[in-house]
Amino acid sequence: MKPRGLDKAFEKITPKEIADFYNFVDASVAKRSKEEEEAQRLGLDETSVRKDMFHYLYNAKDPETGKPAYSPDELNAEANLLIIAGADTTSTSLCSFLFYLSQNPRIYQKAVDEIRSTFDSIDEIRGGTKLSSCQYIRACLDEAMRMTPAGTSELIREVLPGGIEVDGQFIPEGVMVGIAHWAVLHSEENYGDPSTYRPERWIVDHANGVSEEDVALARSTFQPFSMGPGNCVGQKLAILELLITIARLFYRMDVRPAPGTTLGHGSSKLGWGMRRQDHFHVKDAYIAIKDGPLLQFKTKAT
Predict the structure, then answer these.
(1) Distance CA 3, CA 6 (A)
(2) How far apart are CA 142 and CA 148, in angstroms?
């Protein structure tokens, strides 16, 4: 149907916001492609070009033919994926992290102390062993992603030929199945106190009653990036990006909720499931849509 005008029909009914996004992607890809072409024409060395992810996609070669690995349409598709998957989801996790730390002074101070005692300067905050050693910051981030999964709804899969048995119930082939991340990550069976923001649940500490078995159970159902063939291709980059952003922010700045704000909070005036004031609330639109939190920042005292 595409040669007969199906694409044009879809263009006419596409909402303006989506059309604007597609136009933004098209313009961005065209601009970066032109810059890469110019760099090749001038013979610029690697130190003189913008080495973002698009640079490596644009210059990738098919190992068998030596030709470009991605066509212009494929570059556009990759850019589309990177912008959506690498922006909204990461910002949701960061907003959740900032909401819960700013609402919990004990946790906030423990996280800040870890960062400021680990690094001697902001230039040290980069991917590596020092950043990886910040165990509590990573636990705070994991707990934020548990409390506020960036993809709240179910990621549907089709049952393969022969069917499958799940928890004693047979499901025939062809049935579409899935389970919502929100439901799994807020299950009392898996987390005990799922409505409590508690980073300590991710760190083995026998003195505080957290055993290896407790952490293993929590980890077994914690799949914020999905799993299997459909898991997030950029998950390691996303975690690194979040940890660097968080560590650099708290190394330089003090953070607190803006006085009088309730943005992002629940309220007794809202509907069922949205009344807890200590929860960061989002809306499910395949990916989470959020508003807030509203915070204040100031440079730390030296």
Answers:
(1) 7
(2) 10
